[in-house]
Design goal:
single chain; 79 residues; alpha+beta; 4-stranded antiparallel sheet; 29% strand
């Protein structure tokens, strides 16, 4: 059994500097995290929302909560 989270959906903000990953944990629960990267420094993605420890029973529940807590995500998905 895998011991790492598996990203099931990744949504990028236009410009590719922010993203939200919805992930499935090895125990079958779901979560989400908001990430940011600075294109200038090539440093990669780093968590900025610190939502990753929250637990949800489904992908749709995790996405619903992510939309409620991350303003740009909800605005983008409405378009």
């Amino acid at each position: 059994m895998s011991k790492v989270n598996k990203v099931v959906r990744s949504i990028n903000l236009r410009g590719e500097e922010m993203c939200v990953d919805i992930f499935l944990r090895p125990d079958g629960s779901f979560g989400f995290e908001e990430y940011r990267r600075d294109l200038e420094d090539q440093g990669g993605w780093f968590a900025v929302g610190f939502f990753g420890s929250e637990v949800f029973s489904s992908e749709s529940e995790a996405l619903r909560e992510a939309r409620a807590r991350i303003r740009w995500l909800d605005e983008q998905l409405r378009q």
